[in-house]
TrEMBL record:
It comes from Alkalibacterium subtropicum. It comes from the Bacteria. SUPFAM superfamilies: OsmC-like. Gene3D superfamilies: 2.20.25.10, 3.30.300.20. Coiled coil: none annotated. This is Peroxiredoxin, Ohr subfamily. Belongs to the OsmC/Ohr family. GO terms for biological process: response to oxidative stress.
């Protein structure tokens, strides 16, 4: 890759879906566990939750980029839902994502346009494009959500 690298990070996992993950400097550590819905104890977070948190934060930063570009300072919220599906092609699993975007006091048509622009800009969206199903839609802003 010829582009300039601006940041690099890593994560270490032991125990797979029933273990522990941490940053190499141990500034972030989290217990990983299989969700109850999949037969686990559900006593920790799981890879899908971590993916949803990272993707939602990254996507919201992309949305803020376009809000700033258009001089919009209304509050916004991004709810990103990750679905884990059975993959009939190999018996494993695959992901899909729903991104719901609300911007306070803004018509949903305008929110939808900004949401779609953010989707083309966000690094997570670029990484998933063409690889998993991602649905981006405007929703009403809910105070305190």
């Amino acid at each position: 890759m010829s582009e300039k690298i601006v940041y690099t990070t890593a994560a270490v996992n032991t125990g797979a879906r029933a273990g522990e993950s941490h940053s190499p400097d141990r500034s972030y550590e989290v217990n990983i566990d299989v969700p109850k819905e999949m037969g686990g104890k559900g006593e920790g977070t799981n890879p899908e939750q971590l993916f949803a948190m990272g993707y939602s934060a990254c996507y919201h930063a992309a949305l803020d980029h376009y809000k700033k570009e258009e001089n919009i300072d209304n509050a916004s919220q991004v709810t990103l839902t990750v679905h884990l599906h059975k993959d009939p092609s190999d018996g494993g699993f695959k992901l899909s994502v729903e991104i719901e975007v609300g911007i306070k006091d803004m018509p949903e048509e305008k929110v939808q346009k900004l949401a779609e622009k953010a989707h083309t800009y966000c690094p997570y969206s670029k990484a998933t494009m063409g690889n998993i199903e991602v649905d981006v839609k405007a929703v009403p802003f809910v105070e305190g959500k």
